[in-house]
Design goal:
About 10% of the residues lie in helices and about 50% in strands. The chain is mainly beta and about 325 residues long.
């Protein structure tokens, strides 16, 4: 009986250790790791600015007390603008899961988060902010990953903050809003990461910034009316899963032009009748006369609608086919 109890205790401990190790992977710290974020800033005057911020783990170092830190370099954010890069000393306590930060000029640490905190638990007691913790699975860089989201239930110094982590990636989303000035705020979206030498996404150089759209948008197709093909342009503001579909006047889907994860940029999609001719449509079966012709009845002359869906954003426009 004693041996059985020890075996069960050992197995349970092993499971807990496995869970601890997995949770620690929400916050990556390895020398050479890089993250680049696309930041959209909404000013008080409703002006929208887009810029980029990169952070990198430079080296690890040990203080006189034997505590090991990783030095993370990132631009300093002051009054909604970036200034000279600063170095932040960061460490994770593997036993408690607590993330600590300190500046080079300070001898005291600040608790940033506890990775072992359970869902729905309100953190406080010495942490920099108060958060509720939520976990879920999301698509990050085209892969389904476990995610962890922290949301601030109270306003601290006028700011409301949300941070989302992805397993084996780190922080991939971050939102900051000024509750005292309702229209002001920033949103951070991870566009590139280099973790343990493996790269995800696309690094954006400074010269490329002007070509990145500042908002999601769907353009009118050209030419319109068209026969046999037309081009539909759309802009993607942040890396997202994108769908572009065509519908007839009865709202029935007749074609899917795009259904994939895309990086920020401007894209063109061609809707071509010859290319789509002969495809089976579960909602619109061919008639007996059409079965031998290879031309589907949903592509007759008339009005069609195309719809772009990117997360919560969607837009629909009308086009006309003349045959």
């Amino acid at each position: 009986m004693k041996k059985m109890f020890l075996f069960i205790l050992f197995a349970f401990s092993a499971i807990l250790v496995g869970q601890v190790r997995e949770e620690l992977n929400y916050y990556h710290l390895h020398v050479g790791d890089v993250w680049q974020y696309r930041i959209i800033h909404h000013s008080v005057s409703s002006q929208v600015n887009t810029f980029y911020m990169s952070k990198k783990v430079l080296i690890d170092t040990t203080f006189g007390n034997g505590t090991k830190y990783f030095i993370v370099e990132q631009p300093k954010f002051v009054h909604w603008k970036f200034s000279t890069p600063e170095k932040i000393y960061t460490r994770i306590d593997s036993m408690s899961g607590i993330i600590y930060e300190r500046s080079p000029l300070s001898s005291s640490e600040v608790k940033v988060d506890s990775l072992f905190c359970n869902n729905g638990v309100l953190k406080g007691n010495g942490y920099r902010e108060l958060y509720f913790v939520h976990s879920d699975e999301k698509s990050v860089f085209g892969e389904i990953r476990k995610t962890r989201r922290l949301t601030s239930p109270t306003v601290s110094q006028g700011l409301d903050l949300t941070i989302s982590y992805a397993m084996n990636i780190g922080v991939y989303l971050k939102g900051i809003s000024n509750k005292w000035v309702g229209s002001e705020g920033n949103s951070y979206t991870l566009v590139y990461a280099k973790i343990n030498g493996k790269e995800y996404g696309t690094f954006v150089s400074v010269k490329d910034e002007e070509t990145i759209p500042t908002k999601f948008s769907l353009s009118q197709n050209y030419p319109n009316p068209f026969n046999p093909s037309t081009v539909i342009s759309f802009k993607v503001q942040a890396a997202s899963h994108v769908t572009l579909k065509v519908y007839d006047v009865l709202g029935r889907e007749v074609a899917t032009l795009v259904d994939e994860y895309k990086q920020p940029g401007t894209y063109n999609s061609q809707f071509s009748i010859p290319r789509l001719a002969g495809r089976e449509s579960p909602a619109l079966p061919k008639t007996q006369d059409e079965a031998g012709s290879g031309v589907n009845s949903q592509f007759s002359s008339g009005v069609y609608f195309y719809r772009l869906q990117v997360g919560k954003y969607s837009d629909t426009k009308k086009m006309v086919l003349l045959r």
